[in-house]
Every structure is written in structure tokens, then in C-alpha cells.
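Convert to structure. Protein one:
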Amino acid sequence: MLRGRWLLPSVSLALGAGLGATFAARRRAEGEAEGLLSRLPVVPAVAAAGPPALPGSGRPELTKYGLPGLAQLRSRESYVLCYDPRNRSALWVIEQLNRGSLSGASDRAACDFREDDSVHEYHRATNADYRGSGFDRGHLAAAGNHRWSQQAMRDTFYLSNIAPQNPHLNQNAWNNLEKYSRSLTKHNKNVYVCTGPLYLPRMEADGKMYVKYQVIGKNNVAVPTHFFKVLILEKESGDIELRSYVMPNCPVDEKIPLEHFLVPIESIERASGLLFVPNILKRTSNLKAITAGTTHS
């Protein structure tokens, strides 16, 4: 059952603007592998080493002691991740699926959930945060998407790629969405999957809107109110199809068709602060957005 009066902004609006703006200002960790970054459909702008220039400021001394924070990108074998140190999870994770990535001898039993040592200890989650919380350690980039490499599968178990997820959702409806994403590789050249948490406003008894969410563990790991998954399908013809889903972080009847959770991409862009469309349109003029009620295969 769906629960709560959570509101997704502009859910009825048409297709909005912009993928890839959040790929700006990448700071490379020493020794970090290029991984998926070199295979993404949208090439991110890579920041130069050292404090960035402030265009038009004429005040280079402002960066003398560095800046307190920049976008925290991680490029791994199986995904690229933008980390949110405040919530102890990712803002988004993007991965590439195709028929080759889904086959292999990788063993999930050989993988363990573990802290991400590349994240400052003040800002990272631990396994202890999840213990006794009542929430699953829910993958954003799914382990089952990366059977092609044991290391790629192992990388999905970093807690930076994990968010607290309702167990019923994680093991049923969300799992069905992950399986469906994998099934799309049968009829598409590539399937790019961008997944992340949402913290949506809810109307309380006083008639006012509030953004409220639980935190767990001593590190105050944020529990999302919802999750999104954006699928970018590359057809053999060169056409691109876009499908975007939002699910609430609560028990969801797995018998509800996945089409019920399709939303216009603009609603996710407005709610998440991310942008998805313009960079896709730089690659193709044949973009089709699938929304609820659209006929699709």
C-alpha cells in the first residue's frame, strides 16, 4: 500500500530541462580509476587540480585556504557517484547496462557492505548505523547489474552507494524495477540508469508543507522519503528513449504495475535539483519520453 501525503512537485508538467549539469567540478581522488566515467553518454567537465578559479570575482585570495566543499564524484568500475556528505548517501549514481554487463561468474556472497574510506569519516555511514534500524541497506547501483566483474559487483557494496530502504520495498517493488531495467537490455544497445534518493515535502495537520525525514545511527544517515530511477535507453537506430520512475520509501504492493510509478522527468528535476535533458538532446534530436499512459514495449 502507498502511504502518506507526499507531494512530488510539478508531477503533471511536461518534459523539463537538463542531464549532466551535476557532472561539473569533479575532484579526482589520488589513484582513482577512470572506470565508467570514460564510457558515459555525457562527458563531464573535469575540474583542474587545486582550488578552482572564481569567474569574474577578481578575488583569487578567497580560495587561499581552499573551499569548504565541492561536488564529490567517485568513478568506479560499475558506476559514477555524486556523494552527499550531509545525508551520508549519494545524490545520484549512474551506471551503464548492456547484455555483456549482466553476464558473468561474479558471486554476491563474496561481497560485503563496507564503509567508503574515500569519504571523510565525519560524513560517511557505517554498518553500525543500519544495525537495528529497521531499514535495509538498499543499493542505488544494483549488485545484480554488474555480474561481468567481481570487482564491479564488490564496488556496489560501498555504503556511499547505499541508502536506508524499507525492507518490503527493497525486496519487492523496487527489486522488480531493477529487474525490469535489466530486461530492457534485450532490446536496446545500452541502458543508462541514474538512481537517487528524494526528500519530498508533505502536508502536515496544520495545513503547511514540511520536508521531514528520519535519520538513523550515530552518523545520522538520512532516510529518503522516496527514490527515483531514470532510464536512458539507446536504441540500435540511434534514437533515445527516456523513462523516469519515483517510488515512496514504504511498503508498496508489488502487484501494482511499474507504469503506475512513471512520472514526467521534470518532476524529478524540480524535486532533486538535478537536470537531465539538454545534454541528451546534444547527442540526438530523436528523444522520446515515456510517461504513464504512453504506449511502449
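Protein two, convert as well:
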Amino acid sequence: MTPGDQEETQPLLRPPGGSAPRSRRVFLAAFAAALGPLSFGFALGYSSPAIPSLRRAAPPALRLDDAAASWFGAIVTLGAAAGGVLGGWLVDRAGRKLSLLLCAGPFVAGFTVITAAQNVWMLLGGRLLTGLACGIASLVAPVYISEIAYPEVRGLLGSCVQLMVVIGILLAYLAGWVLKWRWLAVLGCVPPSFMLLLMCCMPETPRYLLTQHKRQEAVAAMQFLWGSEQGWEEPPVGAEHQGFHLAQLRRPGVYKPFIIGISLMAFQQLSGINAVMFYAETIFEEAKFKDSSLASVIVGIIQVLFTAVAALVMDRAGRRLLLALSGVVMVFSTSAFGTYFKLTQGGPSNSSHVDLLAAISMEPAGGGVGLAWLAVGSMCLFIAGGAQALRCLLAGLCLLHLQCPFHSGLCP
């Protein structure tokens, strides 16, 4: 590593002698920002319990057919794609704090539109708005948290982002077990509303304030977050703004890690992990489960557990090993689930055929019931592998060469 690399990796604000700040307000600020990823996860998981409820509705109540149900689950990704682009523009121009405040608006507006929906177009519009907020939150929240955290807790707080996403998904599954889709949408307004209130009391990140040449505000933010401003050194910030030219992509140190990172993320998305999240309950209904809500809750719990496990063991086991292991697990689990569908093809076509709890307490009464745990087990393995892979990919992007122009954006 060259001296220039070392300077680039040092925090913009740091205490002399490596002493750690003692203020706990940085954890409160990180929690406030992490409510964005929590809302993101809730929006992703919302469609899983909402779609079966909307498909079962009898006229004149609002009802989704198969095509509309597919769009209801998938359109959130279109909004997220636009939100990612918008978030990248906002985070540098409006600041980290204001970007998080702004993304709370589409979250609340989207779930409000869904709550008041009188037709399919209002449902799709609400989902599109929540997707837009998801894209902004998924980009801005990690940047805010990484820039307010001092080095001793940066890894811990950074790991909370992905964990809060899967907790949000699990919350949607659990609430969908007892709430109808309108009340579930009302619940979806709660996390972003709390984020809006808490973030109003939190400061902008010292790093961003220094890049805007607002040293006094940066010192005040630092004192609020870390407890003291005396004795802190301020290294030059000119290196923070390095121009990027497309010609730099010709350098092996830039294009090789960039292509590898983007390819891994693309293959991980194409594995179908998002489809399982969006349509988990529908998938289990198609698999002839009576307790499809319970099955999806079990999947959500497994995802939270393995996301936490991956965060704990990733530095010890290594990204490459965990990525390879997750790929093997996902191949095996999807093959097992496909086998389950093949073996139960001739069974009854209604979703009340398989009682998940009965499969635990008694001998199977039929082929489909006996194979109930093959379906649940294979989906749990798939989710476990997907959570493990996603956690590694997010951290693995930070292995990009420090001279890569995308490094500061991907790994603040």
C-alpha cells in the first residue's frame, strides 16, 4: 500500500493517539438512519402477505388477478432503480441527512396511497413510490452511518444495515400473519415516520460538512456524535474530490474488480432471491400449504439469523469461501424445491392440502404432507445461502482496489 493509499483510508476526522470517543449518541444517530433500511425491508416483504389477501378478496372489494399480482410485487424494483439514481444525485448535493429526510416522504406517501387504494392503479402507484424510497434509503443510509461512525464501531454499525433490511422483511411477514393488507400498509408508515422525527434531531455527517467547507458545523456535529471536539485533527480534504474519466476503465486495477463485483451482484439478483421475498406466501400457497403465512415467517426468521451469522463469520471464513458455499447451498435448495413441486404435482390443487403444523405432530397422511418439510427446508436453505451471499457481496465490494474511482462511492 502506498502512502497515498494510507492517507485515503484514514477517517476525515480522527482523535490523536487512537483514543476512542465515549458518546453514545452516535448509536442513536445510526439507529435513526437504520430505520430507512428497516422501512426498505418492510416494503420488500409487504407484497408477500398482501398479494394472497388481495387475490382472495370477493367483489365488490378490490381484487388482484394473476397479472396484476405479478406487477404489484415487481413494480417496486422499477421504483428502486429510479431511487438509486436519484439517491446518488441527492447524497452529494442535498447532503446525507436531508436525503434521508426526503426518502421518508415517498415511504409514507406510498403506503398511504395503498391504504386508500380504490383500484389497481392506486396499488401500483403506491408500490412504485415505496420502491423509489427504497432505492434512496438503500444508498444513503449506509453512507450516513459509515461517515458518523468512528473506526472502533464502524464495522458493527455497518453490519446493522443489511440486518435491518431482513428484520423489516420479517416484520412484514409477522404482521401479515394477523393484519389485512390495508392495516399492514398503515403499519408500513410507522418506521419512516419515526425516522423522519429522529433524523430531524440528528446532525449532518462531519465528513460531508467538511467537504462543503463548513468546519464549525462539522466540529459541532462531531461534538454531538462523539462527545468532544478538542484535540481532533483535520487532514486535508482535497483528495475527497477526484475526477473520474471513462478512460480509467482501461486500467486493470479498475475494470477487473469492477466487472467482478458487478457480475457477482447481477448473478446474485438473477438467482431469484427477490422473487422469493416478494412472493413467499404465494409460493407456499402454490406448494399446497395450509399455513403459508407460518411458512413465510419461518423463512424470514432464517434470513435474519443467517444474515447475523454471515456478519459474524465473514472476516474469519473469508468472502470467497462463503460466496462459494452460498452458491452450492442455493443450487441444492432450489433443486430440492423443484423436486417437491414435481412430486406433489398430482395432489389436490387447493392450498389447504398441507398443514405445516400437522407435519410436525403426526405421521403424514399423504405424499404432499410428508414432503412439507422438504419445501420449507429447501426454501430456508435458499434464503440462508442468499442472505450469506448478499452480506459477502456488500462487504466484498470494499475489496476493490483503493485507486478504483468507484471505491469512495461503494465503500465510504
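Residues 1-12, 349-369, 395-412 have pLDDT under 50 and may be disordered. The radius of gyration is 23 Å.
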